TrEMBL record:
This is Putative plant transposon protein domain-containing protein. Residues 1-20, 296-332 are annotated as: Disordered. It comes from the Eukaryota. Pfam families: Transposase_32. Residues 300-313 have a biased composition (Acidic residues). The lineage of its organism: Eukaryota, Viridiplantae, Streptophyta, Embryophyta, Tracheophyta. Residues 88-262 form the Putative plant transposon protein domain. Residues 314-327 have a biased composition (Basic and acidic residues).
Length: 386
C-alpha cells in the first residue's frame, strides 16, 4: 500500500515537472509563415470589437524592455539586497527568460481584465483564464501574502514615509534633501533597480524615488510578505488603462505558451545583454568594488553613451550644493564609502531586531490575553460552587 502511494506521488510530481518544463522555452518549433498569415491580423481576435479596440489603443503601444536578474552573481557578490527578494519568493521569477512576442503582448493587453483574482484575456482566438493556483506553475509565485494596492496603505502597517526614506540615504547625504537614487546606499539602490525594472516596471523616471517605491522597498526590507501575483495584475491593469508602455513581456509569453497560444507565426524579440541585470548593470550604475567593499564611484563618462531611457545618472542623483571650481579635485576617499556600507549593514540588522522585537511583543500580548481569559473562566467556575 505504501509503495503504491509513493509511486502515485512520484508520477504526479513528474507530471507537474514535465508540464512546468514544457513552458520554460514557451516557444514551439518555428516555421516560416506566409506573407498572408503575417499581414492578416484578424487571426489575433475572436471578435470584431476586440480588433477595433486593439487598433485604437494598442497597435502602436510600446513594450517595455524586460530585465532578467543574474541571481547567482549577486548571491556571491557580498551584497545583501537579494535576500529581500528571496524572502518574498521571487528568486525564480526575477530570473525567468525567453524570447518574447511584442505583437501578441499588445493583443494580450487589449483583451485583458482581472476579476476576483483571476486573469482573463484572449490571444490568437485562444481564451486564457489564469487562476490564482496557476501562478506557481507558470511564474514560480505563490498567491499569498498582503494584497497591497498603493496609495492605500493598510492601517496595521507601521509605515512612516520620512523614516523609511531616510533609512535608505547614505550617511554623508543625510539632511541634504536628496530625492534620487544616487543618494541611496548601494543595497537599497539595487533593490530599487529590481523593483522598477522587474517587479513594477516603468518606462521613465528610474532615477527618481517615488512614494510608491519608498513604500514597496520598506515593505520588502521589513519582511512583509507581498502577494506578488495580485501586485502584478494590478500593475498590468494600471499600465493598460493609463496608456502606459506595457510591462512583463517574458511573463506574458510564458502565460501564452502555457495556455497553448499559437506562437509559430509571429516574430519574437531575442534577448541580448541589455536585457540582463548583472555585472554590466553595476558598471552602468557606477557601483564599484574596491577591496571587497561595494560603493558608488565617481562620474562615469560612459553614461552619456548609453540609451537615455536606461540611464540612472549618478551626478543627477546627488544634490548639487557646491560652487564650480576649476581646480583639480582630490582623489576619492574610500573610507567614507566603506563607512556607508557598514552603516547600511548595521541598519539592516537594526531592522531585523525591530521586527523580532515586534513579533515577540505581539506574542507575549496574545499569551497574556489568553491567560486573562483562562483566569476569568476559572473565577466563574469557582463562583458556581459558592
Amino acid at each position: 500500500m505504501t509503495s503504491s502511494l509513493s509511486t502515485k506521488r512520484q508520477r504526479s510530481g513528474n507530471q507537474r515537472r514535465e508540464k512546468a518544463l514544457a513552458i520554460e522555452p514557451a516557444l514551439p518549433t518555428r516555421r516560416l509563415p506566409s506573407i498572408e498569415e503575417v499581414l492578416n491580423q484578424t487571426r489575433f481576435f475572436g471578435e470584431h470589437d476586440h480588433m477595433i479596440q486593439y487598433g485604437k489603443a494598442f497597435y502602436k503601444r510600446k513594450i517595455l524592455t524586460p530585465k532578467i536578474m543574474n541571481f547567482p552573481f549577486f548571491a556571491q557578490s557580498g551584497l545583501y539586497f537579494h535576500h529581500h527578494l528571496q524572502f518574498q519568493g521571487l528568486e525564480e521569477f526575477v530570473c525567468m527568460e525567453c524570447p518574447y512576442f511584442e505583437d501578441l503582448i499588445r493583443v494580450f493587453y487589449s483583451n485583458l481584465r482581472v476579476e476576483n483574482g483571476h486573469l482573463y484575456t484572449e490571444v490568437n482566438k485562444t481564451k486564457i483564464e489564469m487562476k490564482p493556483a496557476d501562478w506557481l506553475t507558470i511564474a514560480h509565485l505563490k498567491y499569498q501574502g498582503q494584497k497591497l494596492s498603493f496609495p492605500t496603505i493598510p492601517d496595521d502597517l507601521p509605515y512612516n514615509r520620512d523614516m523609511a526614506f531616510s533609512d535608505m540615504i547614505r550617511p554623508e547625504l543625510q539632511g541634504q534633501n536628496a530625492k534620487t537614487v544616487g543618494a541611496m546606499n548601494v543595497n537599497d539602490r539595487l533593490l530599487h533597480y529590481a523593483l522598477v525594472h522587474i517587479l513594477s516596471p516603468r518606462a521613465t523616471n528610474f532615477a527618481k524615488i517615488m512614494h510608491e517605491d519608498t513604500f514597496m522597498l520598506w515593505a520588502m526590507k521589513n519582511n512583509i510578505l507581498i502577494n506578488w501575483p495580485h501586485h502584478i495584475m494590478q500593475h498590468m491593469m494600471k499600465c493598460k488603462d493609463n496608456k502606459m508602455p506595457l510591462p512583463y513581456g517574458i511573463l506574458i509569453t510564458q502565460i501564452m505558451g502555457y495556455y497553448g497560444v499559437d506562437l509559430t507565426i509571429d516574430s519574437s524579440t531575442v534577448l541580448g545583454w541589455t536585457h540582463y541585470f548583472g555585472t554590466k548593470s553595476l558598471k552602468k550604475l557606477n557601483i564599484v568594488n574596491v577591496n571587497g567593499v561595494w560603493h558608488h564611484g565617481g562620474a562615469n563618462e560612459d553614461d552619456e553613451q548609453q540609451p537615455e531611457e536606461d540611464i540612472e545618472h549618478e551626478e543627477a542623483s546627488v544634490p548639487d550644493h557646491r560652487v564650480e571650481d576649476s581646480r583639480p579635485q582630490p582623489p576619492i576617499q574610500h573610507d567614507a564609502q566603506m563607512l556607508s556600507q557598514i552603516w547600511g549593514g548595521i541598519q539592516h540588522l537594526q531592522e531585523g531586531l525591530a521586527n523580532l522585537n515586534l513579533t515577540v511583543t505581539t506574542g507575549f500580548d496574545r499569551v497574556t490575553e489568553r491567560i486573562n481569559r483562562l483566569e476569568e473562566r476559572f473565577d466563574t467556575f469557582q463562583d458556581s460552587f459558592k
